[in-house]
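Possible race condition, two jobs.
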Amino acid sequence: MLMTASTQNGPVANSRVVRPLTRRRHDVDPHRAESRVSAYVYGTVLVLAAVVGISPGAVDSGAGVLVVVGTVLSTFVAHVLAHSVGALVTGGEHRELRAAVRDATPILSSGVLPAVVLAATGLGWPSEAWGQSLAAAVGLVRVAGIGVVYRRLQADVPFGRAVAVGAVAAAVALLVVVLKLTLTH
């Protein structure tokens, strides 16, 4: 039997809602895809931990936005440095530094929506508890979507498995947040 895209991936992966999320990008090298997914998870987990660790007063005053932005920017710079230090020491090409910056971009995107939610909360809507919860939920949903993101970038993984990997990643992210809050606050 000839396997077409519709028979391989099943009806769920070919629905009009899911198709844009699961369409593969063939222009991303496997190493670059792994680096981007790593940055996506790392940035999102750190933002999630920051959001959950913000005091109610900081959420209400809007200072929580600065915590998220500071987390995102410091993580981005550290990630780019860590991934480009070899090129910097050996006098590597600027192309390697540009690739490290591009691959770290998901760290920057990890804080955008939580920061917007916290900014709205600082302005009075929603309440601080709802705003902080919503900002945290954004992080969990983002981590839960990692399997689909990776599948889109490179991997030839069935859609169901991609969703299962995301669910496990979200559970592990929650564990990381609990450990961070328990051990560092």
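Job #2 (started ~2 s after job #1):
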Amino acid sequence: MNAKIRRPCTCKHATNGSSPGKVSMKAFLGNSIAFCAAVLLTFGTIVAHAAQPDAAASPGADLSDTSDSTRGLDLAGMRLAPIYEADFTKPLRFVREDDLFVDGKRIRRPEGADWVLEGKTAETRVEHGCLSLQNAGNHLVFWNTREFPSNFLLEFGISPADPDNGLAIVFFAAKGRDGGGIFDPGQPRRDGEFKAYHSGGLDCYHSSYWAVTPAGDPRGTAHIRKNYGFHIVAKGRDFISGQGAGPHRVRVLKVAGQIDVEVNGKLAVHWVDDGKNHGPVLQGGFIGLRQMSHAGECRYTHFKVWAVE
């Protein structure tokens, strides 16, 4: 940041044969140019630094920690009505995103399917009573095709093949930006690339509840973001990293604008959407499971949803 500023030199070596103490015009001009260049370089560095975000700052660095390892979800006074439970003992009824397109246009809905798999090379299967999602080198999202109510409790179990490398997200309350369904004709193609989900054709919430970099460094935090726009609104703690393969129980409770994410009986992250920032409170919508490419493979033991009445 602090550039050395070279001033015109009046020493004997800079005189080019002139009398000692006198500076030749050639040397004077050369040193003046160097001085101006140093000033411009310093100014440019300052401007460039000010224009860029702090690369060392972690996402949500200005947010307080909303986690609580001493308690889990508070369901007191809530009436839970079961509305969906996946059966991973039977063959999956799923379609690929590409199956819904003809000549580059979305013209089909996933009728008769329980799930839609999005991801360029992603694979899925059921074995030993579990759902297996394999990234095969690319990001993936696995959507349930049902539209769930605004107030719900979601529970699933996840077992990463490598708990020390990967990142998993759950999308919920997802709808088209026009208020329609996420599989409606006109919705853009989604192939697992993240931008299509947080700044594409959808409005939704998402929580990254387990996050380790490809280099094996735990992020240490769990986040809630509100989309469209990838707005980080709450930060908590990652209670999966460093805790083995699991299965780890994840629960998401959404009641109106209040969102709580619990992992292994501990409150991982909490937020109340007041509808004043980043658009109104999102209501009912679709739920999807996301794995970043370096997750490799994760198994899900169950997937259950209750309506909260």
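Residues 12-51 form one domain.
Logs attached separately.
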